[in-house]
Write a structure and sequence with these properties.
The chain has helices at about 45-65, 100-115, 115-125, and strands at about 10, 15-20, 25-30, 70-80, 85-100, 125-135. By secondary structure, the protein is α+β, with helices and mostly antiparallel strands.
Length: about 140
Amino acid sequence: MAKRLEVSLEQVGPTTSKANVRSHTVLVDRPLDRGGADEGPVGGEYQLIALGGCFTSHLLAAIRAREFEISAVKVDVTGTLDGNPERFTEFTLSVSATCADLELLRKAVLIAERACQVVNTMKVAAQVVVTVQQVQPV
């Protein structure tokens, strides 16, 4: 069955809008050098946050559900812009975590990559690359 997610945005300044999501509020704005007030990330940055947030949520759930010995998870997300009109042409998620078993980390990352709705959606429009780096426990 299809699900719907909803967000409402309203202008709160010359270049700033306020987004309301459930009980959360975030600001969207342009940087100073592009005529904005820099009150919040631009939409494209929120797209990277959405990609990383969805993926990380699924990754943490996979780790927790399988009781993997993985901690200190970090995901860095990069988006490459190109073309005219400009669009994202590639996304990279760089995952690092502390663990003794790199294969367990890779398994959890693969589970998250397959389950993440945003990754699955983005792959239709652009390449999504996920890399994994193991940090050895001390």
